[in-house]
Amino acid sequence: MSQSNLEKQEAKLKQLNKKIKEEKYKIEQRLGKQIISQANLKYTNLSNDQIKLLAKQFSEFLKEKTVDH
User: Fold this and answer.
1) pLDDT by residue (tens digit) across 14-34?
2) pTM of the full predicted structure?
């Protein structure tokens, strides 16, 4: 394969990785917004420590549900 083709493939790969990262970010944002909305939480009342605690509790809840199946 020529250097030019490798460079083109590398550029495509970088672009694809960037797109994947952006899509993951969008999903994370939508998930977070839905959790906050459904739980009737207020953004102004959420500190970083509270966010971490809620995330841990949510994670544990999901793990328990997965084990139950």
Assistant:
1) 999 999 999 999 999 999 899
2) 0.67
